[in-house]
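Example S7 (structure tokens).
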């Protein structure tokens, strides 16, 4: 009887210990879940707070002036040209160039969701302007038009129309919430584009012209 009582006491203690451990683990998981949820909500809120500015004509514009004291105007122009025609050649087309400016047009795919990669909801076309001076440069994207995507019979996402909707004007077929998500995604994509452009101009990434294959002559040596 004494042994049986001690055994029951040990079993009870073990039960309490495991129960306490289980509660601790659950609390730990709950804290981490709350932390992750809070972090994701903070990221989403931060993304939603970003908005495009408007130009004199009421159009959305992404405009940046960058100080560049260590890089000459000619080098900046050369690197900007390389960015358009080499780094982003699949999505951008150069339209004109002067000794201090470049005009181009392009398009970028907009994802359905913000926090995680989702299927594309459409694309945003834009006009790109770059101007350089000694010591600084500026660039901006404007005339931004949204073209929605849909799946074709092969499962590919394709444009539903060739006529885009200006980002500053909400289309009638989309609700305010859906359009807000598109604007947030567009801003994030364009902001990343701007960061890539600034990094490209800050480093020597201009590709050198490929040398022609040297012809070997056995007549001279």
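Recovered sequence:
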């Amino acid at each position: 009887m004494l042994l049986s009582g001690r055994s029951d006491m040990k079993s009870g203690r073990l039960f309490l210990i495991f129960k306490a451990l289980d509660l601790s683990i659950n609390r730990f998981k709950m804290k981490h879940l709350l932390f992750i949820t809070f972090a994701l909500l903070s990221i989403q809120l931060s993304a939603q707070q970003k908005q495009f500015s408007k130009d004199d004509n009421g159009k959305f514009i992404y405009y940046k002036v960058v100080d560049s004291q260590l890089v000459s105007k000619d080098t900046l122009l050369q690197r900007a040209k390389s960015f358009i025609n080499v780094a982003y050649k699949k999505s951008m087309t150069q339209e004109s160039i002067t000794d201090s400016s470049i005009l181009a047009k392009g398009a970028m795919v907009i994802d359905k969701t913000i926090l995680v990669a989702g299927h594309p909801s459409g694309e945003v076309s834009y006009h790109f302007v770059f101007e350089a001076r000694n010591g600084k440069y500026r660039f901006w994207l404007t005339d931004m038009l949204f073209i929605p995507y849909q799946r074709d019979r092969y499962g590919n996402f394709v444009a539903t129309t060739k006529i885009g909707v200006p980002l500053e004007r909400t289309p009638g077929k989309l609700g305010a919430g859906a359009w807000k998500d598109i604007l947030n995604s567009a801003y994030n994509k364009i902001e990343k584009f701007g960061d890539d452009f600034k990094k490209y101009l800050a480093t020597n990434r201009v590709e050198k012209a490929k040398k022609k294959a040297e012809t070997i002559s056995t007549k001279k040596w």
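Notes on this example. The chain has two domains: 1-49, 53-202.
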